[in-house]
Fold each of these.
Amino acid sequence: MIRDKKILVTGGLGFVGSHLVDSLVKDNHVTVVDDMSTGRLENINMSAITNIKTVEEFIRSSNEKYDIIFHFANSARIARSFEFCEETLLNNYNSTVGICEYIKRTNIKTKLIFASSSTTEFADKFNNPYTFSKVVCDELLHLYKKHYGLEFDIVKFYNVFGSDRESLLGDYTTIIRKYMDAVENDQILTVYGTGAQARDFTFIHDTIDALHIVGDLPSEGKVYHIGTGKATQILEVAQTFKHKYYHVKPRDYEVAFVMCKEPNVPGWSAKTNVSEWITEWRESNGIR
């Protein structure tokens, strides 16, 4: 576990970011930056210093030196990026350049951990605005490393699930949360196409454990894949909920298969299986 560090978490009121903050505050000095585009006030941890502003606004007003910066303040979700293309491209690029410049100005020895996307491994970079923006940001870090000595590592998440905070993404939330909400409201689950498309579902607390390990490692410009190494078909996920579902037209941009081929965080492996987790949730809610 990360201890005795001065840490900045951008996007620290979002789904993954807020869980990370909760895990860090006991043993570290934590500052959060979030512009509330998808974050929520109820995710504020009172043991952290919270700034409700954009990354650009924060870096213009701060000269603090940090040991670690977790940069999670990127516009997320493929479907959302089609509707908000300009916002996705500009926010992800500008915030990442801003963080790199901030480190260059304040403390070039700051360790940067950037949340990229597993979609960059499985989709052409022109498949959607979100994936394109992540590819560009990944390359930016290498540029700053080559010319300015930026110390960074990249983490790639794989369909993180398992918390009420997924709901903060609204219509663009995770498929697990969509199905949970549908079951609770007695609505039919939607399966795109045949449902044969497969995903590597990784539990939120397993993901946070991996981030602590990465945060404790020396920066090497590596890409860490935080996934289970197992793929589950969407149809199987829907059937595990033991609820009515129907098939609709597949989405043109959807990638058929996304799985962490080789989880590579030293000493870490995911403990939670998505089907077992859904079954436990269903049974705890009296759904047989």
Amino acid sequence: MSTGRCFLMLRLFSSRIQQAKVTLTHNETELLRSLSAQAGVIPRATITELAQSVFSSPSTIHRLIRKLGFKGYTDFKVRVEDSLESELPLVLAQPNLLKITISSIEHTFRLNQGVIRDAARLFLAAERHYVYGTGWRQKQAVDNFSTDLLVYGESSITLRNKYDLGNAVKQMNEHSVLLFTSLSGNTDEYAATLQQAKLQKVSIISVTRDVSNPLSEISDVAIYFADDTNLQDNRHWPAITMSFSLEMLINEILNFQHE
């Protein structure tokens, strides 16, 4: 079997990788990429042979496999072989990329039809607005969101990092709203800070990918964006749908201003 079908690893384990993403180290993430490149040979390779091919050790591979939820190397091999036989390649030629992008934007639009007005109303009702993004693309998106709204007379405080967030929450109250943007919606790093925010009756608007996650569950209003990045190999996260969901919120805020 051709190793050119390496993307199947990421398609097969997309949900497991997403669940384990926050616990994966940089080295483990890089090892996953190397394993993806060897997907075609995994079914017939021993764990020692596979370890040699990716310049790792059998114990390291075994730990990673278990972290992803597999019982062991045999279970891992069987699942990879099944996927290599059943999954069809997804070719991201430009027309396909366009179709996927349009479809994702339309999905994002539908996801938020019932909540975007609630989010805008909650945002405008607050006396003080805070925005926070967990990664560099999220930070860029919320910074653009804050700057765009400033043109229309709505000011927000952009929080640079989790330390800013922790300090700012101490000053927030029931008249504050926090717009919190995250790809995964995992709150492990922010559990104490978000708990304090809830105790101080801070309103939280979350913006996350369309999966069940801790952040959306504790939010007053949860905005979602469609995202299929983990379904393809060698693709960066475009963040188009995340930005679109924030554009929807801006548009609804402006609609309220003109009513």
Amino acid sequence: MPYPVYSSQTKDNGLMGYYKDYLYEDAITWTTDGANAGTVNYRAGKFYCTNVCGVLLSNEVTANQMIAEALNNVAKGYVSYVGNPKLMNNVMADIEIMIPTHAEEREKLSVFFRNLDNLITLHQKKFEQLTILKKYMLQKMFPQNGSDKPEIRFDGFTDDWEQRKLSDVVDVRSGRDYKHLEEGDIPVYGTGGYMLSVSEALSDDEDAIGIGRKGTIDNPYILRAPFWTVDTLFYAVPREKHDLNFVYGIFQNINWKAKDESTGVPSLSKATINAVSTMTPDYEEQRLIGEYFSNLDHLITLHQQKCDELRNAKKFMLQNMFI
């Protein structure tokens, strides 16, 4: 039977593939050099390890997840950053950690951290699967390559989509400087997202799509009114009979980097945005498509937030359960 082969921690938790032979069984490994030097893992079962991994074996205390986490909590502090980051075998072997005396307590802690890691992995995989699904559906639910119909549609819709300029779909407006405003509860957004909150709104009651004028021009996102945008971020308000979430899908399907007008800092102009050709169906089909992607985005965000919460919980527990 094939056995897992572990290398660095750059992909799939260090898993490179599978091999017909194995070297170790139920042991603790760490990455010896590179950007992830000092990353420690417990490897259950039989496995093969490449020469960029160190393996810690002991005849006194059975290796488990708890001991790996205790080492992972401190090992980075022993990495040498002279040249390529390294954690040598002799240095790792001399690291001292405090662990419970009783094997039963060690095993219970091991199970706790293993379950926590499994939950993190579960939510991370779900997040990645949904992200891939969204990318696929953005291609299939919007017409591609000059077609006037998408490949996937909701039941009951058969009419051709109509070609439009983005100027017919949205009203592109400019952001402004906010420094004259007082502190408040109106969010201010830039190309990187939320910045701070001020006392006045640039858009009081119209939701929009933010798109960078300078800098990050390929990361559109939805802005919920009331809000203010800085002068490096346009905000595009959907025109009548155009659904916000559907229009957001249009913006995500456009290769904005290809429309960069500068040889330096990436830049867009209103004229460039307005001239982009797109395809749109009637409002009811727009609404259903927009609702589908809104729900998908909500699920993606939930799983990402859950991953962050669990990682923060693990970090807290590692700091407070080990001396």
